[in-house]
Amino acid sequence: MGSQHPDRNLALELVRVTEAAAMGAGRWIGRGDKIAADQAAVDGMRTMLDSVAMEGVVVIGEGEKDEAPMLYNGEEVGAGGGQQVDVAVDPLEGTRLTALGQPNAIAVIAVAERGSMFFPGAAVYMEKIAAGADAVNAIDINASPTENVNAVAKAKGRRPTDVRVVVLERERHEDLIGELRQAGARVNLIRDGDVAPAIAAARPETGVDLLYGIGGTPEGVISAAALKAVGGGIQGKLWPRTDEERAALLEAGYDLDRVLFTDDLVRSDDVFVAATGVTTGALLRGIRYVTGAAITDSIALRSRSGTVRRIEARHTLSKLAHFTGREY
Fold it and tell me: Full-prediction pTM beyond 0.70?
């Protein structure tokens, strides 16, 4: 990523960023207010981002400038003086999960060389299928769910009835879920947040083999960055919701039949990803509060070295408040 700091591990610095976002959101777990939870995560992430030695541009953020006061698409972030990078953020993936106290909410950030991340334009959603290193060559988004289950089972040396698939619980997925079950797969339905399960599909200890179905395009790009680091991959196709969206994408030059592979979504091979658990899920433990402190569980990924770090941190809340000027 530039020769100034070839060995610098940004992922470790980025963990501080996702920890801050997660701790901001943590106070809103189970309180029924997803907007406040998201805002707290954005505020925490934004403050800490400015201390990271990089020249970042938000490619995938909270939305367009007029919709998002902070972490909007195109915003410049970082303390400067480091590498020029694209930044994709989801300060709180699973705002509703957090508000309802449900599992799998995380704070996540991905960073890659400037100009290397796919910009989805008007495409809010994409069809996607993601798997770990042992099955990435077996999946095919243009094949049927049955064919994919059988191919993944064969690649992993298992029976189709041992294949565990995570799917977002949505009406649009009724046929997909039906066919997956018909093929023998075990389907784990989730309410929101498909970045954590996409990463989990590449981690053997999580009990997830495949992520399947239609979900957010920004999450697809963040998942691609993470899968570059942990091994595995994703395939996606843009999925316009309306005729207007379809027309806007075609006019902007997007090919809606094109299969977007991991390298299309994130071209760089030097990618850093950090994620911190907000509520406990397949990938990470949620924030735990003990007297005077918060304990966070994070993962730090670097694609160039293939290093996956698991970081548990204990934050003394009074010192943190004094140091940051923020209430945790």
Answer: yes
